[in-house]
Amino acid sequence: MSDFDIRVVTPADIPDLVTMSGALGAFHGEDTRADAAALTRDLFATPPWRHGLIARHGLAPIRYARNLGTPQVQHARRGLDLHHTFVAADWRGRGVGRALLSAVEATARRLSCQYVSIGTDPDNTGARSASEAMGYIRRAPGPRFTKRLD
Known about the structure:
Blueprint (H helix, E strand, L loop, with lengths): L4 E4 L5 H14 L8 H9 L5 E8 L2 E13 L4 E11 L8 H15 L4 E5 L5 H9 L3 E3 L4 E5 L2
Parallel strand pairs: 4-5
Antiparallel strand pairs: 1-2, 2-3, 3-4, 5-7, 6-7
């Protein structure tokens, strides 16, 4: 049993998503412009354009994932792209990443997707190794990984 929980993002989580988005940008040396209004629009429109999950330890946010639907029109397949994710530094290497990625895959299956794809920063060797360890296959030309769900 883990000492964190993962659930679907609610409007009450938006401030924490903005904060963690900023932390991800800082990690990559980027100037981020995470915006509560835009996140609310994208996560809670009908139908939603993005899907979000958040992991918490008690009240503290420790990881999140934001996902986008991605079609492969030429193959008549639907996919879910793990577009944005961040793990709080104290929680890296403790299983929350694997658990959250499993929850992303469950979301994709519920949405009738045939695959999940992940993009990583080219220098993030830890994320690349973790993706491969969970069965994701690197796609050329860059650090992009896909796992078939059929």
